[in-house]
Design brief:
single chain, mainly beta, 7-stranded antiparallel beta sheet, 3-stranded antiparallel beta sheet, 16 strands
Amino acid sequence: MKVIKQKPIQHTKIINPKILYYGFPVILLSTLNEDGTVNISPLSSSWALGDYIVLGIGLGGKAIENLERHPECVINIPDPSLWENVEQLAPFTGKNPVPEYKKHNGYTYKKEKYDISGLTPIKATFVKPTRIMECPIQIEAKVKHIRIPDYSPHFAIVETQAVHVHAHTEIIIEENHIDPNKWSPLIYNFRHYFALGNKLGNNFRA
């Protein structure tokens, strides 16, 4: 049995951070505009269980408006090499006029998100919003449920179900698996972009 060394006791204090983005994968959410064009929204709140992916999306923006009208999307997952493309999208919204709270935070309106991001649209197989070619993982999904919590009316919890998963061939191993030695998500860590560090070991189910 491996002996795990005890770490020294660490002292703590209560803090009041402005945000709690303590390290989440970044996603680029493709949704369908009214005129058939595509909006791209950077998000950093998501989790997956089986083939269901739950998204946290702020209210008042174009992404949630689009999903309520057309319940399909593509969850594009960039790798660390695309962080500057993601940041190019960050200060823009597809909502016109720009909501006051977004305007106050420095957002401006821009409809053609592909143009400003330097990313490339590619047709999806099942849903209408386009995939982003440069993202190593692209998940076509259907919206199953949208809920606005009573305790926080500023965001929606959006449950989606994956219907097709596309992956760059260089990160695929054994036909249907992603090789974790070749794939790394872009991480949003307290509003800073990071890559994963070195591999530490395997889970017993790996």
